[in-house]
Hints:
By secondary structure, the protein is an alpha+beta fold. It contains two helices and four strands, in the order E-H-E-H-E-E. Helix 1 (about 25-35) links the parallel strand 1 and strand 2.
Amino acid sequence: xxxxxxxxxxxxxxxxxxxxxxxxxxxxxxxxxxxxxxxxxxxxxxxxxxxxxxxxxxxxxxxxxxxxxxxxxxxxxxxxxxxxxxxxxxxxxxxxxxxxxxxxxxxxxxxxxxxxxxxx
Length: 120
């Protein structure tokens, strides 16, 4: 297929714009059909939002965000993706780190498990 088995896919500040009920379809298309060897995904860390003075408590960073995840929520989602689609994941922070709240942006770097890697 034309969109399968690429070296990498980047999903930079995108996932939070999807409706939660569409996440399973997103996962299936990206990890199950396209199957890139590497996926770099970034998304806001909702825990960090309280550091933004202009953001009311409980509000998301942008009006078009459908959700924003805590670090634990991203970790849980990423682990489920790995178990279901045969990837490993490394979670990292982007930006200045607060000792309690983490970084403003979180990143998941997925790598296809070697037994699953297919070349064109």
